[in-house]
Amino acid sequence: MTTAGWIQLIVFLGLIVAFTPILGSYMAKVWAGGKAPGDRIFGPIERLIYRAGGIDPESEQRWTTYTFSLLAFSAVSLLFVYGFERLQSHLPFNPDHLAAVHPDLAWNTAASFVTNTNWQSYGGESTMSHLTQMAGLAVQNFASAAAGLAVMVALIRGLSRSRKKTIGNFWADLIRTTLRILVPIAFVAAIVLASQGVIQNFHASTTVTTVAGGTQTIPGGPVASQLAIKQLGTNGGGFFNTNSAHPFENPNGFTGMIEMWFLILIPFAATFALGVLVKNKRFGWVIFGTMFFLMVLAIGVAVGFESHGNVQLNKAGVTQQVTSAQPGGNMEGKEVRFGPSASGEWAAATTGSSNGSVNSFHDSFTPLGGLVPLTNLFLGEVTPGGVGVGLTGMLVLAILTVFIAGLMVGRTPEFLGKKIQGAEMKMVVLHILFAPLVILGFSAASVVVQSAVHSIFNSGPHGLSEVVYAFASSAGNNGSAFAGFGSNTNWYNTTMGITMLVGRFFLIIPMLAIAGSLVRKQPTPANLGTFPTDTPLFGGLLTAIVVIVAGLTFFPVLALGPIVEHLVGHF
User: Fold this and answer.
1) Is residue 526 part of a domain?
2) Rounded to whole angstroms, how far apart are CA atoms 259 and 45?
């Protein structure tokens, strides 16, 4: 790892620690109700939206109504995006005169963006018009991120309130989150990115003659505005087919670090907001510490293996050492502007945060380097996870941790003063099982169904890793890919679209059910027998539970995929 790589990593981690309490404190004030910073600016706009939509922000909802509102909003959003794609050839802001998107691809893309997945079985600049990118996809980057944060706030209310029946108003949470958190930060982020060379225009593609006498098509479009929210909302995807490896999306090392920081800024800040809202900042820092440790561990492993390079090249006598002329390590599939260290950091951060944007080709990582992003997906993307849903996923695992600890000492487990009983544990189990069910089920089918097998370009353990990664990325609403197979087929567009919806809503519904159950409970005063959840011991146990749950579920797949591939390459 180069000196520049070490400096970038230290600055990146320092930005996380420094801005977590700053942004987290502001987010807590936005969601706490009552007066909040920016009321003079945002208040009139909010009231106008409430009047136009017939929303009473003071009218709170039970968890069932909150869930129905979320599902209805998502269903309408899905139809809205699907319609834009199918009709784009008849709509304005289509300077390249792109045709309507094929029905199965339009379905897959609509499901992808509504679920905050942003899986793309297409080249963005050659498939989607500027209007579809802006009014369809970018709008969902805001909306799906805000919906995830609303779910998180509802669960926090379930933990912090007592003997109540309601967990807030979905529409008010959605509007306040979008208007007061996502829009202002994305606005500043877009300006910063545009100042560094990320393009922002409405131009059509331009064909030019290169110095060598060939021709090249240079795309135009509103990139900076979409890139800002795709990172901040942990949406992933990108305007261009090559994503954040494209110089128009990611021009230099500075934008590379800033974009990587943007994608985990809000998820980490949410841990501080949690501590403030439940009136236990130490608990918030324990959750932060657990997420931070697992992310740093993943970065270390990914950067380590990629920096050491490809063993087969070493056997051939090719040097992969750091020199003045090269960054060293495994450079296959990586941008020379970033090298193995920045690529490994990005891979660990994007798959740990449910973001899915990439600055390198995961498919070309070394077997154990590629094991890191795959493992992050299997962990449930809780390091730190997507905006809102990452923290709620970690809180579900925290409930499981106190339940197991309670069984060990023979006590009814308690979590933040609430007894954890059968109703909550049933929802925890459903939350844990739904994603593996679709990941392993559809992966198994894809390696035996003939039409699906024909789309797998690599045989053996690497091909298995590619297929499993695709469904894990879909279920985790991540959107990144190993690639290496043709995903733009009826089989994969349909099954992966289903997987995205299951990974989003079949996990959110149990979370909201837990919130509805906990909010009604009588608080239990802490005593000598209460297992504390704001200590390093609890953080260690939580880390172990995260790893064990994923290991028991997915270790056979890891053994048959990247681990076997590594062993075959060495022996």
Assistant:
1) yes
2) 29
